[in-house]
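Thread: Newbie trying to understand structure tokens

Hi all, I'm a second-year student working on a class project, and my supervisor (Dr. K.) asked me to get a predicted structure for one chain before our next meeting. I've only ever worked with sequences, so writing a 3D structure as a token string is new to me. If someone could post the tokens and maybe explain what I'm looking at, I'd be very grateful. Here's the chain:
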Amino acid sequence: AAIQAAHPTAEVQLWATDEHRIGLLPLIRRVWAPIGKRPIAPVQQRHPEGTRWLYVCGFVRPTTGETEWWLLPKVTAVVFDQVLAAFARDVGAGPEKRLAVVLDGAGWHIGEEVHVPDGIHLIVQPSYSPELQPAEHLWPLTNEPLANRRFPDLTTLEDVQAERCLVLQQQPDLVRRHTLFHWWPTGG
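---
Reply by user tm_fold:
Sure, no problem. This is what the structure looks like when written as tokens:
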């Protein structure tokens, strides 16, 4: 409401963002198997290349199910600054379209290296409240093709995750069902 009051002629949208770490260590999940048959999930608990990570950065607009995704080698304030600028450009943030983005208070979100683009307004959620963050509910959806699988390297993992993110962009109803909380404002 404050953003709309400050910019009465602009469209205001409410988004949320967060990051999720994935890696070469497997995500083990229960699987269905016929009675008397042992389910098989070929995974390796220790990876020969060591523990290496990839980060999925997701932006979601819960009211519509729209998503924007970035796959990152690391998460720092400099990297988040670049992602925030790309997000603002890709969704058309500016004087006529203002975006309120809910995020947690991680150091890389609020560091001095982060320059908030025109049209973006960051709203830091209270500490220790991940249940209030709609973007946290994206991760079970992005993890789906990773469960009970072994990936030989980060490039293969990145390819599978990128494909999943593209699929999720085409399924806004699924995303909305997971991220639109009953108390989330529906005006933006």
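A couple of things are worth pointing out once you decode it. The mean pLDDT is 89. DSSP finds six helices and five strands in the chain. Feel free to ask follow-ups in this thread.
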